[in-house]
Amino acid sequence: MKYIFSKNQSILEQTKAAGSCACGFQQELTASLPAAFKKTLMLVVFLILCLTMPTLAQENESITEPNWNALGQIAVMQGGRLKPLDTVARSNMLMICGKQTVKVKDKSMHALEWLMDVMCRPEIADTYRVFLIHDPDIQTLLQLGEEDKRWSFLELQPHLGKISEQANQARNVQSHQQNRYQRAVIQLYAHLTTYVRLKNSIAPEKSPNFGKELADLQAFTQWLIDNPTKIDTDVIKHLNILKEHYEQLASRSSIHFVPPNNDLPWQRIGEHLRHVLDGLPMDQSVPMFVLIRQSYQNGDWATINPLITDHLAREQQQLPKIRSEATFNRIALLYKAMPVYVLGLVLTLIAMMTKSRKLLTAGVLVVIGA
To answer: What percent of the chain has pLDDT above 70?
Structure first.
């Protein structure tokens, strides 16, 4: 035992000595470096830190916000194609808004956060000005004014009937004969319809407690199984009302969250619950997404993140192409920001050459702002 202790102590002393030598060598080397090289080295370190700051921030978000990277990797189906939820968010925002970010209270909101607000907090998302309206005749028709080109669903909601009427009239004209206004009003109506279907993707947008509704549904279906002789006309009437309710929910949603089950393909939550009424066991993804919606409303990220992790571990979510597409989306976003980083680098280099404190500050702010 004494031998081991003395040996460890000797090793520790050697390590300290080596560290001291290394430290002395580093100081000696740094002192011998030319001033210009020192500045360049400092600049490189600064840029590396700026480029890695978004990644570090994303890792810390798992504590105070949803794990956006993991959430964006969830495989769903929309428009007949399997895709990550991040792609669904980006493509729908690009279609409605013309870009993949939206300004909310002077802050930039990324597409996935916008989609989560639309699905989980529609009353708040309705206030975001995301609907792009260029056509002056539509602005005149809706009396919106010309001070802005983007409008919120809340601002357009009183005019939905008028927009629907104009779009239906425009559709009666053959596509090659439609004028600018007719094409624009058809497009606006399509964007509004898409938005409404996104709002109802997980639950009816005005449902106060869809989790309780699911629990009641499971209790009712179990009662039907346990009491076949007690099914009378009142029970059948209630069953038909529920079937119609979930059929309407399916028709008003667009994202297929429920993975394939037996012979059934990917399903929207509404159509899956319709099958549950026919005796199909409820897929675990349905109560999970409903709980995510409720937790998102309450800001309960500690509940959301483990749910996302567990869902991604399911066999139906083990899709390398979907994961790769989600990763590519994040890389593409960094690539689009690269010109800004280059501008920051140029400003910083010029500042170092001219010894301009203002240019140096501008370069730092440009890189951080990217």
So the answer is: 72
Nearest to 255 by CA among 93, 91, 78, 117: 78
Residues in the chain: 370
Confidence (pTM) = 0.73
- Interior/surface letters 132-161, b for 16+ CB within 10 angstroms, e for the rest: bbebeebbeebebeeeeeebebebbeebee
Query: Measured between alpha carbons, how far is 238 from 235 in angstroms, rounded to an integer?
Result: 5
pLDDT at residue 39, rounded to an integer:
55
C-alpha 187/C-alpha 183 separation (Å) is 6
- pLDDT at residue number 146: 67
The answer to whether the beta carbons of residues 194 and 96 sit under 8 Å apart is yes
Average pLDDT, the chain: 81
Strands (E), the chain: 75-78, 81-84, 101-104, 107-110, 129-132, 150-152
DSSP secondary structure string for all residues of 155-220: HHGGGHHHHHHHHHHHHTS-GGG--HHHHHHHHHHHHHHHHHHHHTSSS-TT-S-HHHHHHHHHHH
d(CA 315, CA 326): 18
* DSSP H or E stretch at residue 46: helix 35-64
CB 223 within 8 A of CB 43: no
CA atoms of 365 and 53, how far apart (whole Å): 14
Q: Per the structure block, which two tokens stand in for 262? A: 């037996």
